[in-house]
Amino acid sequence: MSIRAALVRKPVERLDEGVAEDAVPVDVARAEEQWTEYVDAVKGAGYEIIEVPASPDHPDSVFVEDTVVVYKHHAVIANAGHPTRRGEQDGTKSVLADRGYEISEISHPATLDGGDVLKIGDTIYVGHSGRTNAEGVSQLRAALTPAGATVVGVPVSKVLHLKSAVTALPDGTVIGYEPNVDQPGLFPQFLALPEPHGSAVVVLSDDTVLMSTSGPENVQTVRSLGWNVVTVNISELEKLDGCVTCLSVRLRDLPA
Ligand code: CIR
Predict the structure, then answer these.
(1) Where in the sequence is the signal peptide annotated (predicted)?
(2) Most buried residue, 60, 83, 157, 220, by CB count within 10 Å?
């Protein structure tokens, strides 16, 4: 059986200062509870939880997925597209280096957020978005092509990150709310979900995904296709444009 682990990072007191498209007050205590429930759900699916030490000066640091792209034993450390998020990546880098990952880094003038990267097997889709620039796409391609990945750049103009628009089911079907997706035809199999909110999945195992309670019809659609769905309420983190994917980095087959 493959070893599975997930990186997570505790929300900080300054969470409510995080970057948000719509300024809605965030209940930090409630966000902490919801984060704990999220971590418990991932743990309950059999993942070892690895906590990246909290970063009190980075309000958005709970969204740990944005700090790195992991492929096989390679960890490509991101360079955040938003200036207030730069520096978050240092904690992730040190944890993954300690775990034996081969580290490379996206560097200036390139920017890249992990939320723009969707891996489906050896195909890595990377969104050219408001956060990830062309140099970021290019540096990711240069870092991971030699490791066996095919890096496919895709435009993202309607939402924050590629994974705000699309994620993938365990069988590789790409899902999303179509009005949020620039070019659904770029994906070999695309399934449109009914609701804009809560349209993301985290693959927990070959037959189970994690979704937010904010998209009940989306959950129903995914269940109707024969998948097990574990749900979590992450409403306070969604106020900061987060979704289920961005709260963890899933690791499989860790370096020995
Ligand atoms: C930001 O704007 O950077 C954060 N407030 C939200 C980041 C969410 N990350 C993600 O979806 N991968």
Answers:
(1) none
(2) 60
* Residue 133 Cα to ligand 1 middle (Å): 16
In the prediction, which pLDDT does 121 show?
A: 97
With the most atoms of ligand 1 within 8 angstroms of its CB, the residue from 24, 163, 240, 250 to mutate is 240
Residue nearest to atom 1 of ligand 1 (CA): 19
Which residue has 């007191």 as its token pair? 13
Please identify every stretch of the chain with a pLDDT value under 50, giving residue numbers as ranges. Answer: none
Residue spans of alpha helices (H) in the chain: 28-44, 89-98, 134-144, 162-165, 216-224, 235-238
Is residue 240 lining ligand 1, measured as CB closer than 6 Å?
yes
- The yes-or-no answer on residue 246 being catalytic is yes
Beta carbons within 8 Å of 83's beta carbon, 6+ residues apart: none
The reply to whether ligand 1 has any atom less than 6 angstroms from the CB of 153 is no
Ligand 1 within 6 A of 59 CB? no
Q: Which residues, other chains included, contact 100 with Cβ-Cβ below 8 Å and sequence gap of 6+? A: 73, 254, 255, 256
pLDDT given at position 2: 62
Rounded to the nearest angstrom, the distance between the alpha carbon of 93 and the centre of ligand 1 is: 19
Does the CB atom of residue 161 touch ligand 1 within 6 A?
A: yes
Q: What is the pTM of this model?
A: 0.97
Domains of the chain, with CATH numbers?
5-251 (3.75.10.10)
| pLDDT the model gives residue 102 | 98
pLDDT in tens, 126-148: 999 999 999 999 999 999 999 99
